[in-house]
């Protein structure tokens, strides 16, 4: 479940080329990993607002930052209640040690001194790049997003 090669801290050119760095996680919608498959199912259940824009509730998917020394980790979780109706292999996902009502779907970490920004007591959201797995680099993921072949989900973070 730990694939740290798919976590980046960088501005997102497609959203704001001169913007502040964001924490990005690559999510392979074609992955065979149970956690990533669960993320795909939950992304498909997004709540549509304006046309083409889907919203996720923190109950559905959320992220948590953890720091240990020079390592920043992001843990993506969901409510254990949401997985109750999913295939049996998703029931084997680990319970979140920080919140026993949540299940860990993904954990990634990198070595960095980056500290996610806070505004009004809320941590900077995590951006999840949803793609089909054949992308080789972050630049390719951005290109796919601009071409409409990848999506970006904004996850509330704690």
Report helical residue fraction.
10-25%
For the termini, the CA-CA separation is: 20 Å
What's the story with the biggest beta sheet?
Answer: 4 strands, mixed
Overall geometry comes to globular
Number of strands: 12
Spatial order of the strands in the main sheet?
1-2-11-12
Q: Which structural class matches the secondary elements?
A: mainly beta
Radius of gyration: 15 Å
Given the structure, what is the number of helices?
2
Helix and strand run: EEHEEEEEEEEEHE
Q: Report strand %.
A: 35-45%
Low-confidence stretches: none
- Output mean pLDDT: 83
Explain the overall architecture.
The chain is mainly β. The strands form four sheets. Strands 1-2-11-12 form a four-stranded mixed sheet. Strand 3 and strand 4 form a beta hairpin. The longest helix has 11 residues. It starts with 6 loop residues before the first strand and ends with a strand. 28% of the residues are buried. The mean pLDDT is 83.
Question: How would you sum up this structure in a few lines?
Answer:
The protein has 158 residues and is mostly beta strands.
Topology:
Elements lengths: L6 E4 L11 E7 L5 H11 L2 E2 L5 E2 L6 E7 L2 E9 L15 E2 L2 E13 L6 E2 L2 E2 L2 E6 L6 H9 L4 E5 L3
Parallel strand pairs: 2-11
Antiparallel strand pairs: 1-2, 3-4, 5-6, 6-8, 7-8, 9-10, 11-12
Keywords:
158 residues; mainly beta; globular; 12 strands; four-stranded mixed beta sheet; single chain
